[in-house]
């Protein structure tokens, strides 16, 4: 319908973004080639463990949210029977 046409008229690839509620659709931007990307900034030695902890914690929270969502879906499916 109109929604699909408006998405296709933008010319971007359509992806599902897990950070959007209910699998909302948004246009994906193509990634630039690696040669265009700037090098990673240097992380001072005293901050390395903190940066690692922040990244690890954010990944842990994503996994925990995914697990909770799986359990929620599994429980919802069990009530229908």
Summary of the model, kept short:
With 81 residues, the protein is mainly alpha-helical. 54% of the residues lie in helices and 10% in strands. It has a two-stranded antiparallel sheet.
Using brief descriptors, characterize the structure shown.
two-stranded antiparallel sheet, Family with sequence similarity 160, member A1, flat
Describe the structure.
By secondary structure, the protein is mainly alpha-helical. The chain has one domain (2-29, 44-80). The chain contains 2 helices and 2 strands. It has helices spanning 2-9, 45-80, and strands at 13-16, 25-28. Strands 1-2 form a two-stranded antiparallel ribbon. Strand 1 (13-16) and strand 2 form a beta hairpin. The protein is flat, with a radius of gyration of 19 Å. It starts with a helix and ends with a helix.
Sequence of strands across the biggest β-sheet: 1-2
Instruction: Give the mean pLDDT.
Output: 73
Computed Rg:
19 Å
What is the beta-strand fraction?
Answer: 5-15%
How many runs of DSSP E, i.e. beta strands? 2
Question: How are the elements arranged and paired?
Answer:
Elements: H1 2-9, E1 13-16, E2 25-28, H2 45-80
Antiparallel strand pairs: 1-2
